[in-house]
């Protein structure tokens, strides 16, 4: 057994790699994008980012020293959480990094819908000067149900209040959360959703949230509801979503994530006039690597001290 390794699968700047080396002097820091050293895989103790092939080897190896993985995303549904729990491997995510970006994205697509901006862009492309096909309404005073009251949900609620939008929240227990007029439990969602004008999904993907937006949920909404999904694609039954858009149960949907990505070229969503498709861009964040390193370093210092993590540790049994 050799010196423990920190394996950087996420590409970092040279000065950031050096900063990690100075923090973890007893570890070998391997930058996967600049180095191809002959390392002993089982000596990898920490991984920044997730190399699926190498990660699977480490999960299967009986002699692996892997103890902690720092994900670069907020969602961790792509990880084998049962195997992590079985092997006692810690997992932390990048929650908080994307909050402002995703919140701004949600407001952007809502303005595009409410102020006729999406239609105007299409008209401009076709050289059409017309108000006839532009619908508009006021975003102010709309009731917005934010499904997920974590970092992203709280940031969105704060922004919404500044625009005089009324934010309500859904979380697992209905516990009070700063920034929301009122919060409700997920089990009571269908009861409260009929009162909302806008529904925004920011939930992670778990067994409980898989396909939660289905025919039953859409029928529970007020006719003409606006739906925004910046959470996870598989939380939505796409067939039921398309039907809700066709029959007017939903007046508009802004979709950044999908059951299948890239969205297939033959999907009806591409050509529906009441749909805005974006290619999973809501979380794109300026200075992402700097913000990620701040989380990683805080956790690294704590991990080197006592084997625990300072922030963003995933409860493996819950999936978030």
From TrEMBL:
Residues 108-282 form the D-isomer specific 2-hydroxyacid dehydrogenase NAD-binding domain. Pfam families: 2-Hacid_dh, 2-Hacid_dh_C. Residues 7-309 form the D-isomer specific 2-hydroxyacid dehydrogenase catalytic domain. The keyword NAD applies. InterPro entries: D-isomer_2_OHA_DH_cat_dom (IPR006139), D-isomer_DH_NAD-bd (IPR006140), NAD(P)-bd_dom_sf (IPR036291). SUPFAM superfamilies: Formate/glycerate dehydrogenase catalytic domain-like (SSF52283), NAD(P)-binding Rossmann-fold domains (SSF51735). Coiled coil: none annotated. One of its GO terms (molecular function) is NAD binding. Gene3D superfamilies: NAD(P)-binding Rossmann-like Domain. Keywords: NAD, Oxidoreductase. The keyword Thylakoid does not apply. Belongs to the D-isomer specific 2-hydroxyacid dehydrogenase family. This is D-isomer specific 2-hydroxyacid dehydrogenase NAD-binding domain-containing protein. It comes from Candidatus Enterococcus dunnyi.
